[in-house]
C-alpha cells in the first residue's frame, strides 16, 4: 500500500500533517512551536521544550511521568529542538506502539497522545510559573551544553563561521546563548515565553504511522482550546545575500588541527539540482573534494561540502595543517572551477545521483526519518515522495549541474587555527 500524505489547517496558525504507512508497528507524533530565530528567545525556546518534557499536572514529577510512559508499553517522549534556516522549531514528540500490537489490542494510543498534550498544554506549575526545581536543573544542563560546544572544536568553529557567513541574519544566532544569560533565566521569564509560544507561534503537528482515527479528534479538540492571537508569520526560505567581497577571518584556539570553512552563495532555487552539484563537489566519499583534495593531494584531514537550500549557501569544511591552508583553499577553489567548466564525467554525475537516491529512499525505513523527511518537505511547500525526488535526481543533466555551479560565488573564508602553530611559526 502506498504512503498517504495529507495536510490540513486545524486552527489559527496550526497545521496538521498525516503520513500513513501501514508497514510501521508504531506511531510517531510531534508538536512543534515554530518561530523566527532571535538571540533573546532562542535559548528560552530550547529550555521551554526541556521543561515541558519533565512533568505535567497529572504526573508532577519526572519519575511519575516515566512510570506512566512505561505503562504505555514503553512509549518514548522526547524533546524536539532544531534550527531550520532562520526558523526555530521547539516542541515534543511521542512514539508508541500501535493498538493492534498491544496485549488484547488494548487502546493505548489515546492515552499516549493525551500524555503528550498534557505535557505541552497542562504543565506542572508553581506560583503561576514553571517549577523552580526543574528550571534550575535545565539551566545547568544548558550551561553544560554551552561548555560542551566550546570543547567540540569542529562544532564551535562552525558556530563561529556561521556568525560571519550570516552576519546580521537570524542564522548567525547561537541556539544556546551564553552561560551568563543561561544563569539569569527565571521560572517566570521562562513561563512567559511559553505562553507567548502557545499563543502566537505557528504550530506544526506531524503524525506518522497508522490508525489515527482515534487520536485525531483528541488533537483537534486540544488545539481548539488554545487562545490564539497575533500569530507570527514565518518564512523558511530566506536566501543569504552575497557579500560585496569575500570576507576573511582567522582566529586562534587550542585545537590540534586548523579548521577551515569556506562558504559560497547562490540564488539558485532548484534545490535538487543544487543537491546534485554539492554531491559531485564534496558531498560523497567519491566527490571531487574527497578524491582530489583529501586523497590525491593529501591537503586535508577531511574535506566535505554541505548545501542549505533554505539559505542558498554551500559550506565547505576541512581540517588542515597551518602550512597547507593557502594551498588547500586554492585546491578547493580549483575543484569548484572545474565543475563550472564542466570537468566531470558522466560516471561522477551518475554516482552522485545514485548516492543521493540511496539516502533519500532510506527515509522509508524509519518512522522518525520518514516524519522528518516530510517535515522538511513542508518547509519547501512540497510533498514529494522519496521516490519522486529520486526521479528528479536521475533526470538532472550535466548542463543543469554546470549552470548551477556557475551561480555559486565565494562569500566567506574562516580559519580557526592552533595556538601552538601560531607560536611555533610566529
In short:
The protein has helices at 42-52, 62-71, 109-121, 132-151, 153-165, 179-184, 187-200, 216-224, 271-283, 288-296, 325-340, 346-361, 367-379, 386-395, 398-405, 419-425; strands at 4-11, 14-20, 26-36, 76-84, 87-97, 202-209, 247-253, 258-265, 302-308, 313-320, 409-418. The protein is α+β, with helices and mostly antiparallel strands and 426 residues long.
Structural summary, described in words:
With 426 residues, the protein is an alpha+beta fold. It folds into 2 domains: 4-224, Metalloenzyme, LuxS/M16 peptidase-like (Cytochrome Bc1 Complex, Chain A, domain 1, 2-Layer Sandwich), CATH 3.30.830; 247-425, Metalloenzyme, LuxS/M16 peptidase-like (Cytochrome Bc1 Complex, Chain A, domain 1). Helices cover 44% and strands 22% of the residues. The protein contains 16 helices and 11 strands. The strands form 2 sheets. The chain has a 6-stranded mixed sheet, with helices on both faces. The protein has a 5-stranded mixed sheet with strand order 7-11-8-10-9, sandwiched between helices. Helix 11 (325-340) crosses helix 15 (398-405). The N and C termini lie far apart (66 Å).
Helix-residue proportion: 40-55%
The top-level CATH class of the largest domain is Alpha Beta
The topology string of helices and strands comes to EEEHHEEHHHHHEHEEHHEEHHHHHEH
Radius of gyration, rounded?
Answer: 23 Å
CATH topology of the largest domain: Cytochrome Bc1 Complex, Chain A, domain 1
* Helix count from the secondary structure assignment: 16
The oligomeric status of these chains comes to single chain
- The percent range for strand residues is 15-25%
How many β-strand stretches?
Answer: 11
Low-confidence stretches: 421-426
Mean pLDDT score? 94
Overall spatial form: globular
Q: Give the name of the CATH superfamily of the largest domain.
A: Metalloenzyme, LuxS/M16 peptidase-like
Major β-sheet profile: 6 strands, mixed
- Architecture per CATH nomenclature, i.e. the level-2 architecture of the largest domain: 2-Layer Sandwich
Q: Tell me the distance between the termini.
A: 66 Å
Instruction: Kindly name the structural category.
Output: alpha+beta
Overall tally of domains: 2
Order of strands in the sheet with most strands:
1-2-6-3-5-4
Amino acid at each position: 500500500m502506498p504512503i498517504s500524505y495529507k495536510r490540513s489547517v486545524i486552527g489559527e496558525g496550526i497545521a496538521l500533517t498525516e503520513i500513513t504507512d501501514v508497514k510501521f508497528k508504531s506511531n510517531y507524533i510531534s508538536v512543534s512551536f515554530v518561530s523566527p530565530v532571535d538571540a533573546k528567545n532562542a535559548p528560552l525556546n530550547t529550555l521551554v521544550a526541556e521543561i515541558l518534557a519533565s512533568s505535567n499536572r497529572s504526573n508532577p514529577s519526572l519519575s511519575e511521568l516515566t512510570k506512566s510512559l512505561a505503562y504505555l508499553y514503553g512509549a518514548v517522549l522526547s524533546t524536539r529542538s532544531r534550527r531550520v534556516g532562520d526558523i526555530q522549531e521547539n516542541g515534543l514528540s511521542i512514539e508508541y506502539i500501535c493498538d493492534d500490537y498491544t496485549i488484547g489490542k488494548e487502546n493505548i494510543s489515546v492515552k499516549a497522545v493525551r500524555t503528550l498534550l498534557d505535557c505541552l498544554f497542562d504543565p506542572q506549575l508553581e506560583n503561576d510559573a514553571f517549577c523552580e526545581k526543574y528550571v534550575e536543573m535545565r539551566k545547568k544542563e544548558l550551561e553544560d551544553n554551552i561548555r560542551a560546544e566550546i570543547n567540540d572544536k569542529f562544532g564551535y568553529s562552525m558556530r563561529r563561521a556561521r556568525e560571519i557567513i550570516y552576519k546580521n541574519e537570524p542564522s548567525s544566532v547561537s541556539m544556546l546563548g551564553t552561560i551568563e544569560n543561561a544563569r539569569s533565566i527565571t521560572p517566570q521569564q521562562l513561563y512567559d515565553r511559553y505562553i507567548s509560544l502557545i499563543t502566537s507561534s505557528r504550530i506544526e503537528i506531524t503524525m506518522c504511522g497508522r490508525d489515527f482515527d482515534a487520536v485525531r479528534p483528541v488533537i483537534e479538540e486540544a488545539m481548539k482550546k488554545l487562545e490564539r492571537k497575533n500569530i507570527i508569520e514565518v518564512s523558511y526560505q530566506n536566501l543569504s545575500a552575497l557579500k560585496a567581497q569575500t570576507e576573511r577571518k582567522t582566529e586562534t584556539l587550542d585545537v590540534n588541527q586548523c579548521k577551515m570553512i569556506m562558504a559560497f552563495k547562490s540564488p539558485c532555487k532548484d534545490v535538487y539540482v543544487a543537491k546534485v552539484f554539492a554531491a559531485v563537489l564534496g558531498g560523497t566519499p567519491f566527490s571531487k573534494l574527497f578524491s582530489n583534495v583529501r586523497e590525491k593531494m593529501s591537503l586535508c584531514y577531511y574535506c566535505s561540502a554541505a548545501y542549505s537550500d533554505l539559505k542558498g549557501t554551500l559550506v565547505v569544511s576541512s581540517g588542515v595543517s597551518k602550512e597547507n591552508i593557502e594551498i588547500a583553499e586554492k585546491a578547493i577553489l580549483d575543484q569548484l572551477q572545474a565543475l563550472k567548466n564542466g570537468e566531470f564525467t558522466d560516471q561522477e554525475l551518475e554516482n552522485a545521483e545514485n548516492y543521493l537516491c540511496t539516502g533519500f529512499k532510506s527515509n522509508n525505513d524509519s518512522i522518525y526519518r520518514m516524519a522528518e523527511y516530510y517535515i522538511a518537505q513542508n518547509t519547501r511547500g512540497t510533498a514529494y515522495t522519496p521516490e519522486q525526488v529520486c526521479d528528479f535526481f536521475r533526470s538532472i543533466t550535466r548542463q543543469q549541474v554546470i549552470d548551477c555551479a556557475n551561480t555559486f560565488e565565494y562569500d566567506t573564508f574562516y580559519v580557526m587555527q592552533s595556538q601552538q602553530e601560531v607560536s611555533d611559526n610566529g
